[in-house]
Amino acid sequence: MNSTTYFFLYFLIVIILLCNIGFYSGKNLMHYSNEEDKDNTTVSSLQPYFRHRKLMTKGVCSKWDISISQSTYPSSGIPQYIVQIVNTCVSGCAPSNIHLSCGWFASARIVNPRTFKRVSFDDCLVNGGKPLKSSQSIRFTYANSFMYPLRFKYARFC
Description:
By secondary structure, the protein is α+β, with helices and mostly antiparallel strands. It contains 2 helices and 9 strands; from the N terminus they run αββαβββββββ. The strands form 2 sheets. A 5-stranded antiparallel β-sheet has the order 2-1-3-4-8. A hairpin with an 8-residue loop joins strand 1 (29-33) and strand 2 (42-44). The chain is flat and about 65 Å long.
């Protein structure tokens, strides 16, 4: 192989590494995990999140099985954010009446109230209070000048 080929391969590897570092830096995709600190919700990137998730076939579902993640959605005008809430528990009954701490959550874009609704200050209801089955996810997009910190508040576990 000639020097041009080596240069091209080296350049391609550098670009791939830079893209991966940018993706895992947590600048655009945030995950709020209760696993790292049982009392306070902390922000971490996706890479550590995947390391600590374990498939549990026995046991009871708990607040640590509700995964909440947000990412920016490229748009012009008011910034938009995509929220995904997933029940990662594979055993036990589905949690219902899931509430998140959400401050004065508001959106310039209409969010279906059956999906996500602010009930009062710092209290938002997920899925209209209905159970979130195992591996089921709720997704919605909202628009605001900043990303609201959404974290688990409480839910009913059987």
